[in-house]
Amino acid sequence: MMTNHSFADLGFVSLVGAGPGDPELLTVKALRVIQQAQVVVYDRLVSQAILDLAPTDAERIYVGKQLDFHCVPQSQINQILVDKAQQGKRVVRLKGGDSFIFGRGGEELEVLAQHQIRYEVVPGITAAAGATAYAGIPLTHRDYAQSVQFITGHLQKNGAPINWHCLAQSNQTLVFYMGLKQSGHITDNLLQAGVSGDMPCAVIERGTTARQRVLTGCLLQLPHLAQQAESPALIVVGQVAELHQKLHWFQP
Ligand code: SAH
């Protein structure tokens, strides 16, 4: 007798970006797949309101990391995804912001691909887009910024060293993720590379949430601003940061 395997038996992973905080910034597609999840594997930056959208009987697995303390090693997260998918489950891998922006989404997909597990990617609003929008800071602006760069503040880890001269080019916006602890280092390097100490900057803490705070000043003041802020926070350096005074609209 022939056995009929439907796709549903095979297991599937949706790699879903949950956006920066405000649950209403989920995409319609993200909402649908979360509502259909059997297993949700989630990170620290995913809000409770978004987790609550999953079916009550969905298994919820927290694999959050904290800055200096990796709760669950990446290899173990990968294994959980593989195991659950191989058990035939509809797995949602839920990450803050967008999974492909400083989210290790690529690493997890490589493992799924290796195990021939089917997957899809649902993009999310990355913090740089969401938090600046809610802070009234346009990332580009015809008068002030023709380009934007997203940079990880975990500068010492992996990869080639940052080319600060490239970052210091005029008319661009710099957005540092995970940069609070490195703010002194970032400031020194940008000044050395020729960015003016007067360059406007902003620190956006818990962007898009009811606890959003925006601290603004100039580059010379950045370490001081960063000291007053708590994670998760973004550092924005560039002329556009000044527009916050004029364009802010969000009342947390
Ligand atoms: N994949 C995520 C980024 C993960 S790295 C994304 O696309 O947004 C974690 C860093 O993102 C934090 O240290 C912080 O710099 C930034 N971040 C995430 N959510 C944020 C928020 N609501 N407000 C400000 N920064 C945020």
TrEMBL record:
Any keyword 4Fe-4S? no
**Does this UniProt record's set of keywords contain Methyltransferase?**
yes
Q: In which pathway does it act?
A: Cofactor biosynthesis; adenosylcobalamin biosynthesis; Porphyrin-containing compound metabolism; siroheme biosynthesis; precorrin-2 from uroporphyrinogen III: step 1/1
Any idea of its EC number?
2.1.1.107
UniProt GO BP: methylation
* InterPro entries reported in the protein's UniProt record: 4pyrrol_Mease, 4pyrrol_Methylase_sf, 4pyrrole_Mease_sub1, 4pyrrole_Mease_sub2, CobA/CysG_C, Siro_Cobalamin_biosynth, Uropor_MeTrfase_CS
Q: What class of enzyme is it?
A: transferase
- Keywords in alphabetical order, please: Methyltransferase, Porphyrin biosynthesis, S-adenosyl-L-methionine, Transferase
List the signal peptide residues. Answer: none
GO MF term (any one)? uroporphyrin-III C-methyltransferase activity
The family note in this entry says:
Belongs to the precorrin methyltransferase family.
Q: What is this protein called?
A: uroporphyrinogen-III C-methyltransferase
Species of origin reads: Vibrio olivae
Q: What is the lineage of its organism?
A: Bacteria, Pseudomonadati, Pseudomonadota, Gammaproteobacteria, Vibrionales
